[in-house]
Known about the structure:
By secondary structure, the chain is an alpha/beta fold. It has a single domain (5-268), classed as Nitrilase/N-carbamoyl-D-aminoacid amidohydrolase (4-Layer Sandwich). It has helices at 19-35, 53-59, 66-78, 162-170, 184-202, 251-260; strands at residues 5-13, 40-42, 81-83, 87-89, 98-104, 110-115, 121-124, 127-130, 143-146, 149-153, 175-177, 205-208, 210-214, 220-222, 226-228, 234-237, 243-250. Strand 9 and strand 10 form a beta hairpin. It is globular, with a radius of gyration of 17 Å.
Amino acid sequence: MDGRKITAAAIQMSSTPDKHENIATAERLIRNAAASGADLVALPELWSCHGLEKVYRENAEPVPGPTTDFLGDLARELGIYVLGGSILESRPGSEKLSNTSTFFGPDGELSAVYRKIHLFDVKVSDREYLESASIAPGEEIVTAKAGVATLGLSVCYDVRFPELYRLLTLRGAEVLMVPAAFTLQTGKDHWELLLRARAVENQAFVVAPAQWGQKADGRWTYGRSMIVDPWGTVLATCPDRDGHALAELDLDYLDRFRAEFPAFSNRRPEAYDW
């Protein structure tokens, strides 16, 4: 990091139902991103296990747990901030799992935990998705500090709910984190559009690591991990393979932009009472 700047990497990978294989891939990709100069590295949604419903529960684990220990150790070794995308979390007293994002500082400590609020219960083409059948929704809006930057945490389907991102921004978020596993059908038309909209309306950077490729159950994920600036310009995008999008986030520019284009001071909260 240099002054009010931070270099972010959005990891792209195509996870399998094999947790050990995914952890090895994630470690390689995180190390590559750090070697490229990233201070902040973000993994996609369900990076540690993806593709077969029948193995999700057996791969779920508590937070903190072995997978978060791995991420914390790697953050400490590399001296970077790590957003652990999301994993499936088992919680005492709950029959359902949580789709949980974790965040680690360069000291390796787990400093923030966000559980996905909006669950993907939709029909896309001829396939129905019912995330709520096995996942419990989160209830808490979460921000985290990455050195000079304040992050707003979210996961995938959350991106379709602008009220979450406005609340994150009003709580100080400058960088909106959107780890995802968008379907190919929705992603090709909506992924970039939604990310750029969230950036523009909140005058914030967006870092969106994503799953790509065909999964073990036959469905396809869209990929195109990207980083967007507050003007809505795409700063970096991943092609259709494992890798990372890398960009410098200039927070001094963000401060100037918000001062010169004071959309937040033009808000009329008194008129928004539903």
